[in-house]
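Minutes, project huddle
Topic: does the predicted pose make sense with iron/sulfur cluster bound?
PN asked that the exact inputs be recorded in the minutes so nobody has to dig through chat later. Recorded below.
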Amino acid sequence: LKDGPQIDVALAIDKVDQVSAWKVRESAVGDSRAPGYMDAEGNWEDAAVHPDKLGAYLRDFQQILDDHGYRCVYYGHFGQGCVHTRMDFDLKSAAGVKTFRSFMEKCADLVVSYGGSLAGEYGEGHGRAELLPKMFGPELMQAFNDFKRIWDPDWKMNPNRLIGDVKLDEGLRLGPDYRPPQLETHFAYPDDGGSFATAIERCFGMAKCRNLGSLTMCPSFHATREERHSTRGRSRLLFEMLKGDPITEGWRDDAVKESLDLCLACKGCPGDCPVQVDIPTYKAEFLAHYYGKRRRPLNHYALGLLPWWGPIAARTPRLANMLSHAPGIAPAGKRMLGIAEERDAPRFARQTFRDWFAARASTATSPPATTASGPGQRVVLWPDTFTDLFEPDAGKAAVGVLEAAGFAVEVPHKRVCCGRPLYDFGMLTLAKRTLKSTLEALSEPIESGVPVLVLEPSCASVFRDELRKLLPHDEHARRLVAQTVVLEELLDRYAPDWDPPGVAGKALVHGHCHQKAVIRGSQGRDLLTRAGVDAEMTQAGCCGLAGSFDYHAGEQYEVSMRIGEQFLLPQVRSAAADTFLVADGFSCRTQIAAGTGRRAVHTAEVLARGLQAIA
Ligand code: SF4
Ligand code: SF4
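Predicted holo structure (tokens), as shared on screen:
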């Protein structure tokens, strides 16, 4: 380094900097692959030479790469002479596989000529076993062979994997014969060239989703410890479904469905997987086809169509609540509908948020204060089904906060819906229709550039994520993706100088998994801190309830509670009684209430306490 080119060096003394630096290192294997741009594969991935020879070796290695037309990502243990490499091999055509073979053979010759090892860290595996004779020679290979024969005389244990007739270009995941069908789909897969098959090729098996130390991905694997209930397992099953080997039933295959059934659609994978494997989207797509010409279970209608039947039930909330909670009637109803008996139905509010807002608007006498970036900056407050029908207090608090910050709040006159519950059941034709009608209802504010504030993170994620995947060419959809904001984004962008009213106290904040994956940000913590709250985040990923997941009777309910008990619920129980429990997601608040008996509130409700103190 002393005599080499100028290189900026930064010392990471601070613990936070050290953790960030290691994160970069740890994510190297995943970040080496950029689907559609650099479809990097391993195979030649951890050759090692003596560190003194590393420079010369790498220059020769680069020459082989150039000769074969490959790009390469280097990372890893340069100091030990063991450098990880991942190349953009073409393993889908006969010519590509031939080039791959030539590359592997030349690399093996090179590393042996430097006295190095074909595999300095991981072991040769099937991909490099054919090359072992180059490194060990015939005598040692015969000794390996003889040794295996002693223990496996009938050649039954993993035959022809390391010893025997091994071929490095056989049994490739893709291979020249890989011709997946290009199926008609509901989602447009804009990040995968419009192809479901290309999307399914994303997973390259590095197993970050099986990391039990990860808080985000994958909760169903954490709860079950079964490969088929991991992101990777689901991805693999879908891949085999497209390949038709060994899964032959296509969209109607039950093994694939069973694996997807326990996916919470928490969006942990598109947020955390290095190549954004997006099982919630693939699950919704699969279910849409699986149930294409089949009768659905009743709970799909009961839970998926909540935004349709809910407003009707909400007209007589007492009756609806009585029926859904009456001993005798409620359990029988749940059994009939296939809903978990342990789970209480949410109670309808006495007055919906929309009704409250309409009544209030008709009696309002004074315009809001003007402390936001523009006088009376317009904002559409999205009346999501959960806030509207069950917890209007969150909406009322948001209106108070927004007006205090100088916004002119509007709520759409027409009943609108983002269709969130539909995705859990793959009701995608209706979901698309619902989005189109929403875009029509919001056309004026969309065209006027008015921000749309969504209090419920799972609904915000529909506008930021599913919308762009279902209607990628719709101009209004494109604008709504950009105009959708959560509370802290709205205040940061449009009222940066507004100081939230002071609220004393501590808060335990649980971020909704969709917010973490799609919207990111501080999940309200920074906003609360600005209001003087001593806010701490929970260590939990998904709360376990995830929309309607835990309302399903049977295994889903059990898995949901197991996930909740892993981190979130014990943390909530150990929080002091006067600590605010803050969760912007209706599901998370429901899970907290069911699991601990404590009430969690939306960020807006905490801020509104400060307003009450001033009033
Ligand atoms: S799904 Fe899991 S195994 Fe596949 S690429 Fe993502 S983290 Fe790796
Ligand atoms: S959405 Fe969540 S539960 Fe489903 S595969 Fe991804 S991380 Fe696992």
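Observations noted during the meeting:
- The chain is about 50% helix and 5% strand.
- Strands lie at 72-77, 82-87, 377-382, 407-410, 452-454, 484-485, 506-510, 534-537, 580-583.
No decisions taken; revisit at the next huddle.
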